[in-house]
Design a protein that fits this description.
alpha+beta; 4-stranded mixed sheet; 3 domains; 3-stranded antiparallel sheet; 372 residues; 9 helices; 13% strand
């Protein structure tokens, strides 16, 4: 994630901020520019422009979810007929806000969802609402009808034909930790769910029926094997023996679709965390005799890196440092994964597929800019 600064006072501000903590300037995220900016009111009513912008600067209004519920800081161009921003218009169903506690849960969910959408936009991937296209994306945020996470009336997080469903109980850290422990998972977060389920969506968009399918099957396996049977075997018998040498997680060994989704989520983890490290100018240089491969300055933007090996060469030293810092605070490893060579090969294939998919988007954006 990028770091931002208030254009009014130069205070450091963050992706989720709605106002500057120093000068009080109103802040808004512009998805067309991927920038968090201080805003100037243009006329009476909800019309704004980036601070210091001239008369030709594009004007914006707040997303309806900020105006009504105060759960969004993204802006909408005034000429756009939509009431909601690019991220919020993907919502198909939101929690029942008359139920106590659901507003807070939804707020956490929306915050993490916007981080997902930011990454997808930074990668140049298509982000279209299902209401605008049959190949688009949508979200259902639903609650169990019975006590949380019981089998009867339970909402299962998952993906089907572009619709991603998330159980709102995942936004409760106590409930989520209970489920993480019950499922023996080393890692479970809302953002992780979003990234995993988006992997299923982009498999359908980028791989199914494409020239990449043969390469996918040679590396991940044949997805035509029965999915439900594979999952039943996984839960009944456990992960494949020796899964750690082939898969990024135990669940990834259940079926080629899940291997892709777990690897896709991991790819997004890596790229976003490396961007944050790059923005902070982090450098890993242990003060002991060591091999050169764990000495690295994170002086590159991973979103613009074509060579995936360079991404891995920067990623691994950072994870060593992050794990050591977490252990110093008495916590478990922040990054509880080991990337075996076959896993890195899978991540590299995902990187190549994303690069190929993002190129037309980038060229289109550049063409539009040249005509504006």
């Amino acid at each position: 994630m990028r770091l931002f600064s208030c254009q009014n006072c130069r205070q450091l501000v963050y992706f989720e901020n709605v106002s500057c903590t120093r000068c009080g300037a109103v802040l808004g995220f512009l998805p067309d520019q991927l920038q968090l900016v201080a805003l100037d009111p243009v006329v009476a009513g909800d019309v704004w422009r980036p601070l210091g912008g001239g008369d030709g600067t594009r004007h914006y209004r707040h997303c309806a979810n900020r105006v009504v519920h105060d759960v969004c800081n993204w802006m909408v161009p005034v000429e756009d007929h939509q009431d909601y921003c690019l991220a919020c218009r993907l919502n198909h169903t939101i929690p029942d806000l008359t139920v106590a506690g659901n507003m807070a849960l939804w707020h956490r969910i929306e915050t993490e969802k916007r981080r997902l959408i930011y990454s997808l936009l930074r990668l140049g991937l298509p982000v279209t609402a299902r209401s605008d296209s049959c190949a688009g994306l949508a979200f259902d945020f639903l609650a169990d009808t019975e006590p949380t996470f019981t089998e009867t009336g339970r909402v299962f997080t998952g993906h089907a034909d572009g619709l991603i469903t998330l159980n709102v109980a995942e936004a409760d850290p106590v409930v989520r930790e209970r489920m993480r422990s019950r499922m023996a998972e080393p890692y479970r977060t809302i953002l992780g769910h979003f990234r995993h389920e988006s992997g299923h969506y982009y498999w359908e968009r980028l791989v199914a029926g494409s020239d990449w399918l043969t390469a996918y099957r040679s590396m991940f396996g044949d997805e035509r094997q029965d999915y439900q049977t594979a999952l039943q075997n996984h839960y009944a018998c456990g992960p494949a023996p020796g899964w750690g040498g082939i898969f990024v997680s135990a669940y990834a060994s259940s079926h080629p679709w899940e291997d892709w989704a777990e690897s896709w989520a991991h790819y997004l983890h890596i790229i976003d965390t490396l961007e944050t490290a790059y923005q902070f100018g982090l450098e890993v240089k242990p003060r002991v005799a060591c091999k050169d491969e764990i000495r690295v300055g994170l002086a590159f933007d991973p979103y613009h890196q074509t060579d995936f090996q360079a991404v891995i060469d920067h990623w691994l030293p950072l994870t060593y440092a992050l794990n050591s810092l977490n252990r110093s605070m008495g916590h478990e490893h922040l990054y509880p994964f080991v990337l075996a060579a076959p896993v890195i090969d899978k991540l590299n294939l995902i990187h190549r597929i994303v690069q190929a998919a993002s190129l037309p988007c980038i060229q289109s954006a550049q063409g539009q800019a040249s005509h504006n």
